[in-house]
Amino acid sequence: MRARALPLAQVVAGQGHTVILVLPPWDNPADSGRTWSEGPVRVVNVALPPRIPVLGHMLLALRLLLAVLRLRPQVVHAFKPKGFSALVAQAVLALQALGLHREVRVVVDTDDWEGDGGWNDVEPYLWWQKRLFAWQERWLLQHAPAITCASTQLVRMTAELRGMETGVAYVPNGGAALARVDPAVVSTLRERIGLPPDHPVLLLYTRFVECSPQRFTRLLRLVEERGACPAVLVVGTGLRGEEAVLSAGVGHSGVRLPMMQVGWVPTADLAAHLALADVALFPMEDTLINRSKCSVKLIDLLSAGVPVVAEAIGQCGAYIQDGMTGVLTAPGDDAALADAVVDLIAAPARGLALGAGAAQRIQQEFSWHRVAEPLVQVYLPA
Questions:
Q1: What is the mean pLDDT of residues 52-64?
Q2: Superfamily of domain 5-174+368-379
Q3: How far is CA 198 from the centre of its chain?
Q4: CA 121 to CA 139: how far, in whole Å?
Q5: Where are the alpha helices (DSSP H) in 79-232?
Q6: What is the C-alpha to C-alpha distance for residues 24 and 44, in angstroms, rounded to an integer?
Q7: H or E segment and range at residue 262
């Protein structure tokens, strides 16, 4: 919600509209019942019911629906076509079929493929949750009056499900310019992490959904075999401890590149960590999840001016212009990825130019104000 719904809401609110973000704080119980403002957007967290399996979920969905309807909205924009937000969208559409709340326009946002072949295959959901999420996603993408999609792959899949492109809008994720970090702060951070002072830094910024730890190990071996000796900085953790698998794999493979893992860092510290990088390696394996997603991590890297080497999968090609704002390689070509990393390490001036071009393009072509332009038109009645 903070990475996508909130910045879009702030743009719309800044245009003079009243925008309220209503959340079910299932993952943030400390926010239960709390209300605050994020700039022009009011954030309302419904009160959590007792955590009783299934019944607690149903009660929370009902509280969320009632909280939304009490606001008497003209538009309900449900972010994620699954779970609580999907239940609210489906409930409003069901009420409209009964002749109630027909003044409300229901819009559904999708920024990942959630069902079979997507996050259902990755997340440890219960069997009934997987069936529910897969059904919710397909039903809403077919029947909601309007859909906003974060990737061109999701636009295509949604249009195929609906049998038409009408009502489908492309709204990719945006980025904001990151504040420039004092070089003294970066130097201190480098020393604290233990990065060798005489090595360039190769950054892996990942949840390991984009790329397996085994493939990262192979790529690092190829980089080393080509004569480069960067220090490897890993920012992020996997869903199932993949960062430990990477560490063990590097040790067993004989790769001698120094590697430091810092896990996830607070948002306030992210810019300083990204500023440590001379090159970022961002492989994207050819999976439905990667083709469908609009990676916030990739946008973070480009916004920070980090030269990125990535594969031409999904939205990577939308954000990176090969040779101008980064380097794109053919999917699955490990040798090309390693060659590109080594070339940028050997030519730091080229890396700086690519990074500067990337940051400028994000600000010009993918600012939140720019990507949110279709929204008001989407919100108007058909």
A1: 93
A2: Glycogen Phosphorylase B; (3.40.50.2000)
A3: 33
A4: 19
A5: 83-97, 127-143, 152-162, 183-193, 213-225
A6: 9
A7: strand 259-263
The model's confidence at residue 167, banded by pLDDT at 50, 70 and 90, is very high
What does the domain layout of the chain look like in residue ranges?
Answer: 5-174+368-379, 183-365
Whether the pLDDT of residue 313 is over 90: the answer is yes
Assess whether the region 5-174+368-379 and the region 183-365 belong to the same CATH fold. yes
Residue range 81-140, pLDDT digits in tens: 999 999 999 999 999 999 999 999 999 999 999 999 999 999 999 999 999 999 999 999
Q: Give 354's pLDDT tier (boundaries 50, 70, 90).
A: very high
φ/ψ (deg, to 5) at 49: -80, 175
Percent of the chain beyond pLDDT 90? 96
- Location of structure tokens 């910024």: 205
Write down the architecture of domain 183-365 according to CATH.
Answer: 3-Layer(aba) Sandwich (3.40)
> Can you tell me whether residue 374 is helix, strand or coil?
coil
Integer Cα distance of 249 and 235 in angstroms:
17
Question: What are the tokens at 63?
Answer: 């509280």
Residue 110 phi/psi, 5° resolution? -130, 130
Instruction: Please give the model's pTM, rounded to 2 decimal places.
Output: 0.95
Going 308 to 314 to 318 to 321, the CA torsion angle's sign is positive
∠ at Cα 338 (121, 320), nearest 5°? 70
What is the rounded CA–CA span in Å between residue 202 and residue 279?
5
